[in-house]
Amino acid sequence: MLIRTEIGVDAAGIDSLLRRCFATSAEAELVQQLREDGLLTLGVVATDDEGQVMGYAAFSPVTLGGEDLNWVGLAPLAVDESVRRQGWGKQMLFEGLDTLSDFSYNAVVVLGDPAWFGRYGFEPAARYQLHCRWPGTEATFQVRKIADDPFTGQGGLVEYAAPFNRTA
């Protein structure tokens, strides 16, 4: 396995992975739209020994109350079924966090399984009076610090990039 930042030739492999991993094409279309709109802050791929994309994590900008605070949203995160439960998702997550830290990003938000993300430092967003636009996501909307104290004095609506609104 090789974990690295995505490059242009990975696009077809990422699209194929997302179509295999999710019940609909919504995630594949979301990533394509984020890429076309220049809203893909970071993409991390995991490839097998033959170079096939077996995992992917996408990070895109989010705002808080319309203000850019150098926060990103993680979506989607996908690992091919044949290599799940081998640590690929965790490794892509941490590679992404390290890269984002190097570029002075402050926080990551995610809608996902609290048990899985909680193991890696994510906390309920509600703890910081943060929420997103989708009702019923209070238990799964989570945040993780990259920089020191990004949530101090913050609170309100975290808004994802426009392509997320098209697929919701």
Total helical elements: 5
* Rg on CA atoms, Å: 15 Å
Please count the beta strands (DSSP E, at least 2 residues each).
9
Main beta sheet, described?
9 strands, mixed
Strand content: 25-35%
Return the string of H and E elements. Answer: EHHEEEHEHEEEEH
Proportion in helices: 25-40%
> Could you say which structural class the secondary elements and strand pairing correspond to?
alpha+beta
**Poorly predicted spans:** none
Distance between the termini: 32 Å
What would the average pLDDT be, to the nearest integer?
94
- Taken from the alpha-carbon principal axes, the silhouette is globular
Overview of the structural elements:
With 168 residues, the protein is of the alpha+beta class. It has five helices and nine strands, in the order βααβββαβαββββα. Strands 1, 2, 3, 4, 5, 6, 7, 8 and 9 form a nine-stranded mixed beta sheet that branches. Strand 4 (67-79), helix 3 and strand 5 form a beta-alpha-beta unit. The protein starts with a strand and ends with a helix. The relative contact order is 0.18. The model has no long low-confidence stretch (mean pLDDT 94).
